[in-house]
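Bench notes, bay 3.
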Amino acid sequence: MMGIYAWLLLLPASVLLVTFTHYPTVATFIHSLFSNGTVIRPSRFVGLDNYRAVMHDPVFWKVMENTVLFALGTVPASIALALLMAVWVNRRIPGRAFVRLSYFTPTILPMIAVANIWLFFYTPDIGLLDQISALFGGHGHNWLGDSRTVLWCLIVMTIWKEAGFFMIFYLAALQTHSPELEEAARLEGASRGAFFWRVTFPLLMPTTLFVFINATLNSFKLVDHLFILTKGGPDNASNLLLYYIYENAFSFFDTASAATLTVILLAMLAAMAIVQFTVLDKRIHYR
């Protein structure tokens, strides 16, 4: 009887999980094995042809390069900045509550609002960056229209948006540490830097793993900002994988390619999650 009761309690969550996670995943994989159908020409089974077409698409490899660079630019910087902010606001500083709120505010802003704020910063000639540059004799620059700078502009904006969110997890972890540890280290003559690297940072490694996983996942699902700021341009210089999937599905109406790209994205995220939870988790947690 208790087993039936337990299954009934799990049923609502299981139905939602299957309906909105497992079934769409399986349906997407099946769709990726069929051609793109139309009213005149129905879709037909093509096996792995869609995957071969994607692998021979130079735009796909450009998008993958952008996505990897975006992840490498945002994940370490967001984690480092979040840790620095958490350590700072965990101390007794004047206006600590206000500083914490200031750091966390970008996180609660809607993505569309954030994109429009930074669009004002990056607008040529009249934008905030060019206005500051003009004070020092600089000239206007099309930050989002230059393939050399557009991806870095997105990276800076994303770090600003996410660091405050990750700071909350570090701050919560710091507040669980016993103050006796710092007192003992001070009695032993350890400096603040030595205490941080030898005691505080190792104790924060489980939190760092959690933040690292979330930051990695976030770096692969940027869509809203691209839609407002660049639409993947110029010349796909800022096109990221999830936005490329959106383009194929809703701009080019090539649902077969979109399904194929989605399966590739899911496989990549699953592989990274397996590595993070099997390799890194064993090295981080205390057994």
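Next record in the batch:
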Amino acid sequence: MKPEDFAGNEPRLVLEDYFNGRSRAWGIFQDRFGTLRRQFVVDIEGRWDGETLTLVEDFVYADGETEQRVWELTKTGPNSYEGTAAGVVGVATGQTAGNAFHWTYRFDLPVNGNTWRVSFDDWMWLQDENTLFNRATIRKWGFELGTVSIFFQRIDDTAESDQADRAAANDSIRQTVAAQ
């Protein structure tokens, strides 16, 4: 696949619009044999300052582990981006077209007390104005280790009547994930 394959697809994905504000994502990691190895929920706080999109991602894994990753994405052209985060080797590069975003990067991944340098081939597709699907293939030395699948949902902070319901749902999800 190439980003251009999605150029005519709607709705159009503009990263700094979609991720500006709060969102939540639910994800899984499957190894190369399709075995489910990890599940997680991530709360994301995004801020676009006109040049840089900062994403603060707070992960809660089903085994109780927590992690925070902070991405800094810079728009380098009308449809191109570069990004950095702790663990990223060099710079992640990506491009949007239509409803899709494709980016690639190398990452130092902690695995059982060791660090593996892996490559991510990461695709995102905007489904509607609030829902984004992400699928990333992880490789080491050219061999597929597994895939990460994530669904993102934007959180509308202006709907005050729904805030209490969201808080209760968020607590329930965190408790479910922590109990697994």
